[in-house]
## 1
Amino acid sequence: MRLLLINPWIYDFAAYNYWAEPLGLHYTASFLEHCGAEIDFIDCLTSDENPNPGLKPDGRSKFHRKVINPPSCLNFIVRRGERTYARYGINEEEFISKLRGLERPDAVLVTSIMTYWYPGAFRVIELVRARLPKVPVVLGGIYARLCTRHATGSDADYIFTDTDLSTLPEIIEKLTGKKLPVKANSWNLGNAPFPFRRRERRFFAILTRTGCPYSCTYCACGYLWPGGFARETASVVEEAVDAARLTGIHNIAFYDDALLIDADRHIIPIVEELHARMPDLAFHLPNGIHAGLVTQRIATLFHTAGVKSIRIGLETADETVQRDTGGKTTSGAYRNAVDLLRKAGYRRENIGTYALAGLPGQKPEDVEKTIDLIYEAGGAPLLAYFSPIPHTPLWKTAARSSPLPIEREPLLHNNTVYIRGNPDYGEQAIHALRDRAAELRKQD
Ligand code: SF4
């Protein structure tokens, strides 16, 4: 059985590779390999021929970008006087040439991430269909899980929506009429084979746990990872050390949504042991950590052990909104966390802090106050435009409070788009907030 796994293009107004890796697809690849399949992999976001522009030693980069005509429902988006909808990733010729260069697969598996990036997955499926007629295609990933009914409008033969991969081999066997050599009984983050690693990357992502004990009204974590699962320290350490030795890569991005939960028994021993075994590893935390869980011990350890970049999810300085959206943090907890991190040796630029803009009912003045609070506390404000996500508690309110038909069209979930449906956020207000955050990030 030969399987081709594909990470599709991003279609968006802006995209940056901030330690982005299709980790779910990499787990799927290693699991199916474990079941005896031969695996081929195409990552539409990384070219084998031309490195991504602006590639930094730690793996961050821009993506190759081709401006394209937006779908008609996005025609009203003009940013700074320009239409900037683009396809990010390799060009289609490279994709087709990669497809041609591979042995014919028995099935193709395509992942998806953001709901509003679905055109990338749809285009991959269209190109695969044209070149590999009769080869079954499975579409999975986050968009497929959050917008399952919409995903049935793709040309895929099967929409895979389970978190547990153990049902996937049987589905593939039914679609292909072939048997996988090894029967896999179960799959979870604790017993999963370590994910597939690509040597050409400069970083790799690690997931030490899934789920989150909070239930923020704008977040889909609880829907995507109900219950949650924490891995054993030894397993995470073994994975990271093996991967670093095998690939020579020394930058690790932790993908956890709740990295600091139960830190004394979880992330602290993981980072301590990794640092003791491989002192030249560098760690990055692209997902916001919980401000209220930062302690002096964590701040000091992170700084000495090589945690280079930290992001914190403050989201808003408004205490009522903090409480009403799930109470994951308070302004006081945020100030304390930044204070501890600064005393441990971090600079403002290392402590990127998310300020949400465009939550239903939230005014630009509230966002400005959040940006200012982040700056005054010693962090670097990062503006994050609210993107409505299906199956979150805030979804229905977000749909009701927007003139845009977001329940019909996932393209309108795009953070660049949704905020422009809100009359409080004209272009001028959006740019003023963005410029203010950018200006304050540069200060000492
Ligand atoms: S704390 Fe973070 S991961 Fe947890 S529910 Fe809230 S936003 Fe999601």
Note: The CA atoms of residues 79 and 427 lie 8 Å apart.
## 2
Amino acid sequence: MKNEIFLRPTHLDELHWILRLEAGARAEGFIRGYDEATHRKRMADPHVRYLTILRQDEEVGFIILAGIGTQDRNIELCRIIIGPRESGIGQSAMKEVLRYLFEEVGANRVSLDTFSYNKRAQHIYQKLGFVKEGVLREALLFDGKYHDLYLYGLLASEWKNRSH
Ligand SMILES: CC(C)(COP(=O)(O)OP(=O)(O)OC[C@H]1O[C@@H](n2cnc3c(N)ncnc32)[C@H](O)[C@@H]1OP(=O)(O)O)[C@@H](O)C(=O)NCCC(=O)NCCS
């Protein structure tokens, strides 16, 4: 199926669906996730934006952004989780969120981090032009073992130089 992906602001009544998606990804070790109270607080923060990812009319995932409207125009992509995995939705949603951030929000930089063993996410970030900027060695304890955290960044100038 062709991925016609749309993003729209997340509604507060989608919070329980978000918590379920997070619980699945947390169990797989790909994210840490927030509790409900933290989500509510972040959803009310003017510098934070929750976006629901739609394929046709179906909600298939969400994205959390932070740093909107701040002086440095450095936006953190705090989270992306897709329900139906590996059908190209994640890449389409990332392209759309980067277009939105660089063309509409006026971001100068988009930052994110990922766990060292999350090779699928790293593949996507590198394919989209993100540069690996650093490693926080053994910053993460998962399943009784320490793992590195990889830091990535993409600048507006780099994004504009790519063909879209
Ligand atoms: C990471 C995530 C957002 C990606 O979305 P998705 O819709 O599943 O991914 P897509 O189908 O768009 O793309 C998957 C790509 O990863 C590649 N891939 C899959 N497993 C891989 C692996 N182990 N190593 C390297 N590449 C891998 C696929 O081949 C595909 O790339 P290609 O199109 O170049 O062939 C989604 O899988 C997800 O929600 N994962 C759990 C939460 C998570 O990890 N979030 C990111 C935290 S930093």
Note: The mean pLDDT is 96.
